Amino acid sequence: MDASTVTQLAEREAEWVRAGGTVYVAVGAVKDGVTQPIPAGKCERLATFDGIDGAFAMERTDHGVSLSYVLGGRASFYRVSPGVFGFLDIPQVPSPTVIATAAFAERTGIATSDQVRLVEWLSPSTASLPSSPLTVRIADTSAIGDEYDGAVLVPNALAEDADLCFVRTAATTFASVGAFLPQYLSHDGDPAIVSSRLFASEYDEDYSTAFLERLTRWMWIGGGLFIGFIWMLLQWFRRSHVAIYSTFGMGVSSRAILQFSEWARIALVGAAAGWALGITIALASGARVDQALAQVSYHAALTTLLSSLVVAVVGFRPAGSLLDDLKDR
Question: Which of 130, 276, 296, 303 is 20 to 30 A from 88, alpha carbon to alpha carbon?
Answer without folding.
Answer: 130
